[in-house]
Sequence to fold (60 residues):
Amino acid sequence: MMAKKCPICGKEVQKEFAPFCSKRCADVDLNRWFSEVYSFKSERVEEEVEDSDSLEEKEE
Fold:
């Protein structure tokens, strides 16, 4: 079986940090999510925002 590769640097994955090779690469990936480098396209976000707005109006 081939060793899995870290999606950040390409080194061999370490069990402790799977699917990454190190804490550093895991942190790099997490930062990319927080910085919105990665994102999902979704139409539901707009619907959820509209729904939460209408809930706030009802509460007032």
